[in-house]
Amino acid sequence: MSRSRKITVNALTRVEGEGALHIRIDGNEIAEVRLCIYEPPRFFEAFLCGRSIQDVPDMTARICGICPVAYQMVSVHALEAALGIAVTPEIRQLRRLLYCGEWIESHALHIFMLNAADFFGCANGIELAKQFPERINDGLRIKKTGNSIVEILGGRAIHPVNVRVGGFHRLPSRDELTSLLQPLCGALDAAIDSAEWIAGFDFPSFEPDCEWVALHHPDEYAMNEGVIASTRFPAIDVGEYERDFAETQVAHSNALHSTRRDHPSSYLLGPLARLTLNRHRLVPDALRLANRIAPPSLMQNRFRSILARIIEVVSCLQQAILIIEEYRETKEAFMPHVAKAGFGCAATEAPRGMMYHHYEISDDGLVTKAKIVPPTSQNQRQIESDLCLYLPQLIHEPDEIIAAECEKLIRTYDPCISCSTHAVTIDRGPR
Amino acid sequence: MTNLPMKEKKRLAVFKFASCDGCQLSLLSCEDELLALADKVEIVHFLELSSHTQTGPFDLTLVEGSISTHEDEDRIREIRRQSRVLVTIGACATAGGIQSLRNWADHDEYLQRVYAHPEYIDSLATSTAISDHVTVDFELRGCPVDKVQLLEVVLAFINQRRPNIPSHSVCLDCKRRGVVCIAVTQAKPCLGPITQAGCGAICPAYHRPCYGCFGPCDQANAKAMSEHYLEVGVTPLQMIHQLRNMNSAAKLFQIESNRIESEHPTNRPAP
Ligand code: SF4
Ligand code: SF4
């Protein structure tokens, strides 16, 4: 008779938000893997309706305290698409700078406080700091420079106040930005050293094939705009996202599962996918570093996402320095506009992967419909499918080891569960 | 700082309910103080930071997030039982958070609008503050909380004193920062006069009205403020929306937005 085992992780740790994992093994078969998001629904898409478009970036920021800039960026882009607003090159660069700040601080938090501990059998970054005090201090310093960019440009690091439809409320002075240069250069050196350190970690081997999806831009490492590229299908415009991708609700989770409409398989978003699709768009020094310590042949391995993150940190720090050096003060903080009825959508790269928003607005500038598809809800099915493929090699281990190893795999995605849970509008059939 | 022996360290726990994680993250944003703090307290439960989790009792419990499910109503009572001092952090925990906008809406309709199978979802019709369910020893405001204030609160309670958190309005900080007053010079509905200080008056310094993310301050005259804005051209709907954000369920904001709604009818449903 085959023995049935149930393994439950009631509360995933070192991830943002709350989720659980349930595994059932019958004999030598993986019978079931369920990633459950029990974070309560918060109904953002419902209460955005009826609100002024000017309120949207302040409200969507509150979906996630870890990547508020991502929510602000994608929502203002979508609303500007609806209004037909094109921003000045200066505003565009400052938005990229703000996003660099968020990538730096969010990645640094994940790398040094949450993820690195897994490679040394530690329960958290503070414990790891006892073994590697300089590394963790460097990590915190890198994180702090990311936060300072967001603080200066956005007013504060979490839920910045300065982003608005059309641009910013107030542009920074040149002095405010150049004050960042020195700490940024220090952080860059620290990040390059950290990258070398991380490249030497002992990575479990796990490189299953799958579809990788990320934005792609012809001239730069895609952040705020681009086409939706994939390793399996031709690139599409962001406006075609809903034609090709869909969400379904599953009983075991408060977050919805995304798949391609015509192919019910999962796809992978985030730093590994971005590096795969956009490597040659890295800032030159970051590209050299990547080619040396993170060759493409190695970067299918989910556990190397920490290496992809630190390479993106290096690239963002260099990018931020370049943007600041080129910054000239201008008059226009934002593009003036009049409200008009319309529909607009946008996708940007949150630290954890591509995020898609669409809004319909009325002629008096109120939102009438909102759809928000965050990265974790898109990655959710991929995480489950990865677990199914990873589990067979663990099957003879005791339950606690299986649970701990699965958690490590989940953590490589840096799933941000507070965002994944908020509601995603259900599609009730073909259009 | 010297390493205190384990048994003298206070046991700190951090719990999360419906929220964005931003307030707990403020603790991790104390880049310069985090490792030193970890020497002073024993972090025994903090899912976002650590895989070591221990059960209570806890000397100091920080709670982020609002109560919005049946299960969470029970969970907060159990956490209260385990905690010597319980402090709520942020607008979600002290005032229901942005998710309390549902308190004005038809909850069933929200569920149906968002989920194909609402029956799978455990959700209450309201999102409420922690103090609506259990006794709270101290409430720290802000969406998110200010990290300097958060450190002050943690240090105060581990040293068994009251935290020194001012309760005056944003206006005073605005004056300190030398910012031109938006309420006086522009017809924009700045909530600075009725919002508690703590942020350092960020919004006016960035040329925009305060939207009340720190919730109501002491001795605020909300009616006088909103009637002034309504007279200078702000519409009732704008004024209601300004009050219905992250702190919409804080008493003062709630009463005032409801008052405007009944005394200055708008032809649109709010929120
Ligand atoms: S109060 Fe604001 S910052 Fe804090 S958890 Fe709630 S939504 Fe996030
Ligand atoms: S909304 Fe008000 S309280 Fe919040 S940061 Fe802005 S000025 Fe400060």
Automatic annotation (TrEMBL), chain A:
Cofactor (UniProt): Fe cation; Ni(2+)
Molecular functions per Gene Ontology: DNA binding; ferredoxin hydrogenase activity; hydrogen dehydrogenase activity; nickel cation binding
Binding site for Fe cation: C67, C419
Binding sites annotated in the UniProt record for Ni(2+): C64, C67, C416
Any one Pfam family match given in the protein's UniProt record, by short name: NiFeSe_Hases
Protein keywords: Homeobox, Iron, Magnesium, Metal-binding, Nickel, Oxidoreductase
Top EC class of this enzyme: oxidoreductase
Annotated binding of Mg(2+), by residue: E45, I372, H422
EC number annotated for this UniProt entry: 1.12.1.2
InterPro entries in alphabetical order: Ni-dep_hyd_lsu, Ni-dep_hyd_lsu_Ni_BS, NiFe-Hase_large
Protein family: Belongs to the [NiFe]/[NiFeSe] hydrogenase large subunit family.
Protein name: NAD-reducing hydrogenase HoxS subunit beta
Organism field: Novipirellula galeiformis
Gene name of the record: hoxH
UniProtKB/TrEMBL annotation, chain B:
Keywords in alphabetical order: Homeobox, Oxidoreductase
Pfam families per the UniProt record, alphabetical: Oxidored_q6
EC number(s) on file: 1.12.1.2
Leader peptide range in chain numbering: none
Database matches in InterPro entries: Hydrogenase_assoc-protein, NADH_UbQ_OxRdtase-like_20kDa, NiFe_Hase_small_N_sf
PANTHER family, sorted: COENZYME F420-REDUCING HYDROGENASE, GAMMA SUBUNIT, CYTOSOLIC NIFE-HYDROGENASE, DELTA SUBUNIT
Full protein name: NAD-reducing hydrogenase HoxS subunit delta
Upper taxonomic lineage: Bacteria, Pseudomonadati, Planctomycetota, Planctomycetia, Pirellulales
Gene name tied to this protein: hoxY
